[in-house]
Design a protein that fits this description.
By secondary structure, the protein is mostly beta strands. It has one domain: Immunoglobulin-like. Helices cover about 15% and strands about 45% of the residues. It has 2 helices and 9 strands. α1 runs antiparallel to α2.
Length: about 140
């Protein structure tokens, strides 16, 4: 269930410095959009994955997870959702939603930005660019 975002000023917070890059790994090999800082340090990605539960959009956030499962909250102008993220290796947290999830539309249509908050990590305030929408549409 998508919840309306709380009335906070997160939407006015400065954007996290960086930019999006779209990557297409060829037929059957997946697509993703990476958000990296100006020094090309990877922060966050949106990718398409097919697994036993069908097609999903996965969110990957770098960090130093202190436990196996962490809360990952995605906030947009019109919606928010807290997902259960899972530690992947020593420096990655991954969560996912079905490719048909309405949260993805809220991310793609958000006016200018969305927030990614992971328990124990600094929040990211990332621009909502065409690269994000493209991966979502590619997954569908």
């Amino acid at each position: 269930m998508i919840q309306a975002p709380p009335s906070t000023n997160w939407i006015d917070a400065p954007l996290t410095p960086g930019s999006w890059v779209y990557q297409d790994f060829g037929p059957g090999n997946g697509k993703r959009s990476l958000f990296s800082n100006p020094e090309n340090t990877f922060y966050f990605s949106v990718s398409c994955a097919t697994g036993p539960d069908g097609v999903q959009v996965q969110f990957s956030r770098t960090g130093t997870p202190s436990k196996r499962y962490l809360a990952m909250t995605i906030r947009t102008e019109t919606a928010q959702r807290t997902l259960t993220g899972e530690r992947f290796g020593a420096q990655m947290i991954i969560a996912g939603v079905p490719a048909t999830d309405p949260l993805l539309d809220a991310m793609a249509l958000s006016k200018g930005r969305f927030a990614v908050e992971v328990e124990g990590e600094a929040p990211l305030y990332v621009p909502s660019h065409a690269e994000v929408s493209r991966v979502i549409e590619d997954c569908r």
